[in-house]
Amino acid sequence: MYVEALAHERNLRSLGHALVTSVEWRDAADRYEFIARTYPRSGFGDNALWQAAGLALEAFDREGSEIDRSNGTRLLTVLARDHPRSPLIPRISERLNALTSRARQTAITRVQGITREVFADFVRVTIAVDGEVRYRGERLARPDRLYFDLLRTIVDTSLLNSTWAFEDGDVVRKIRLGRHPENTTRIVLDLNDVESYDVYTLYNPYRLVVDTVRRSASRVSPTMTARKSPGPRSDETPRGPLSLGKASPPMQTATQDMDSGLLSAPVVEIVDNVTPEDRVGMLSGAVPPTGLDAPTHSLARQLGLKVSSVVIDPGHGGHDPGAQKGGLNESDLVLDVAFRLERILSAEGVSVQLTRREDVYVSLGERAQIANQANADLLLSIHANAALDPNVRGIETYYLGFTDDPVVQTLAVRENATTSDGMHDLDALVQSIAMHDKVAESEVFAGLVQRHLISGVGGIYPTVQDLGVKRAPFMVLIGAEMPSVLTEVSFLTNEKEAGFLATGAYREQIANALSTSIMDYRETLRTHPNSTVEND
């Protein structure tokens, strides 16, 4: 029975945290507790209680319910009482501390205000809160509407149970705010002829932003997502913003669509358990030109474009630490690498911007938007890898594309776990990947990154495994309007590579290798074989 319960838990984790409800985590915990109660003297009793407490923590992370926190504490207390000689006893205090700290992290947040701004091709609704908030949301039909449940929140009295109707007939025709049980605030946007929408968060102060794009405002190509940037372009003049205060008549608190939506910021789970393959895929559907003897070049090369600005994206952050091993967090390690890389590139005269400069959460969509707003020439996302098999090790680099490799698919599930996009976004996302016009340059850049990383760390780590360049549909790359690459610089779940990542010398070598890759890529744009014309 214990093996079956363990298999059930692993199956849930393989789905990704965002797809598992608190009810499912609780059910899995109950299975373990049943084993501990039914077979108290078995060799699995202490392990079952430990696993059950861990799943109570997962449920608490999912919903922030005090019931789950109390249940986790109770299970650990029973473990200490009934199994005093268990090897798990020394770890109980650590898990209790986790439950306590998570309780502090889920303190009540206040919804302070809502604004509505009308731009040339979209309408923006901004929800201001006084701290980071967990939320779930979904688009519903008949009538067309978006709802967002802000968990563990209270509302300023001026906003409570309000409805705002707008006479301009635009895509957000009404905003409703109401309260639900367990300190949940529901905000509903009633829509009219919306083509697509984008949800992301901004910091200092914290805001949840929803951009709704008019159907008539879609780009010329119907296959591209209409809105990519979180801020207005220079030629867009908003009408507003319109700050929403108390309105009438008050809305009735709805209960009929308390559907489980998408959680924006789950804890990342490690689900990869297959050894990566070393292969480089060709772009799906690409057809080589016929009747040409001379080499062909991308449009960027034909136009003589140059690299002078780079956005560096340190993966994860905030409540999403990424992979973890022995007190090391992926989010901390890659931020350190990013700072080192920034220092090196700045000395070379390259303009550098980071998507985050501290341990904060930045949504996947916002990371690409930061690069777009900065008019960056390159986007480089830095990560540390993870696998259930501790023997898996090496370095691999990705550019945007589809893949049928189950290992890469699993990695994409892990890296995309925090996206707020729903199933209704699937067609647009697929089309964005298929039509991404920077694939060729991204592949060139990825090849340089991979080559220099392997050679760069080779002096310290001569047995490093080259896992190659691969394609994957990473959300952080989809919205980027420039060549973009995601690199996994080593496996934090491998003891040897975790030891290397823990040292400043290894991280400095990684930063140097990434800098060399960027400078080499810049050089490839300057010189073309068989070229007789230069563009200045």
From TrEMBL:
Residues 368-519 form the MurNAc-LAA domain. SUPFAM superfamilies: Zn-dependent exopeptidases. Residues 219-255 are annotated as: Disordered. It holds the Pfam family AMIN. GO terms for molecular function: N-acetylmuramoyl-L-alanine amidase activity. GO terms for biological process: peptidoglycan catabolic process. GO terms for cellular component: outer membrane-bounded periplasmic space. InterPro entries: AMIN_dom (IPR021731), MurNAc-LAA_cat (IPR002508), N-acetylmuramoyl_amidase_3 (IPR050695). Keywords: Hydrolase. This is MurNAc-LAA domain-containing protein. It comes from marine metagenome.
